[in-house]
């Protein structure tokens, strides 16, 4: 039974409220398989890694006695500390460089793409359809000793012989990762730009703001969520990237993922590898949160 009075909306009866409860249960039932799958496939392996990080490897057996020795090694041994710092610096560089390059592209699509917005976005996502390994190998061909870049420089007379400075170093890793993750930075920035109220931009113009001041005071602050999302999307995966440093980095481009791989495979020291993994996750989380806070503070100062 539903109770209603003139001039008032209907009032939900117990039966109506029971219907909503049933609907909520149906929603939970629909969501539960996905949630359980994500819990098993993501959370469970992480918990196993965390548990291993507090144990000790004794040749072929694992001593399950609680210890923090693995974390002491991960944080104090120069080789692991330096690799972690290099990985963080490189991932932050990739993230910021990717966002800087992606923002103008997303801005052009949003404000000047017109009816071709969907087509341009479609074309931008095409490289992501191919294998990640294939894209990395393509950059190896471009930057190699007899690659496309060296051939072009030789043809124009800029250099007299092929250079080895383009491949197997940190710069090669930076270039490759920036290209590989560019599309994942363009999309969230584009979405945030699409949400910008164009009347605010017009109002700033009417009040005498020029293009730069209008961008800094209106457009940029309103797109901070997209920039933050792009930074996080790029920064977190790249710090643990293993394939790219292995193929184009050489000894100068080694990152923390390579050390973790050695401990799990050749070193047969799973607890230390797990401790390195957990340490990397914690540090990159702190860095990501700090970067987000700093970016929001800077946006507030710009306003």
Descriptive labels:
13 helices, globular, single chain, MetI-like fold, 2 strands, mainly alpha, 303 residues
Task: Give the CATH superfamily.
Answer: MetI-like
Element-level helix/strand string: HEEHHHHHHHHHHHH
Protein structure class = mainly alpha
How many domain units? 1
What is the straight-line distance between the termini?
A: 54 Å
Question: How would you describe this structure to a colleague?
Answer:
The protein is mostly helical and 303 residues long. It is 75% helix and 2% strand. Strand 1 (56-58) and strand 2 (61-63) form a beta hairpin. Helix 8 (198-206) runs antiparallel to helix 9 and helix 12 runs antiparallel to helix 13 (270-302). The chain is globular and about 70 Å long. The protein starts with 13 loop residues before the first helix and ends with a helix. The model is unreliable at 1-12 (pLDDT under 50).
Element layout with pairings:
Elements: H1 14-53, E1 56-58, E2 61-63, H2 69-76, H3 78-112, H4 117-129, H5 132-143, H6 148-156, H7 170-194, H8 198-206, H9 211-222, H10 224-239, H11 243-249, H12 256-264, H13 270-302
Antiparallel strand pairs: 1-2
Helix pairs in contact: 1-13, 2-13, 3-7, 3-10, 5-7, 5-11, 7-10, 7-11, 8-9, 9-13, 10-13, 12-13
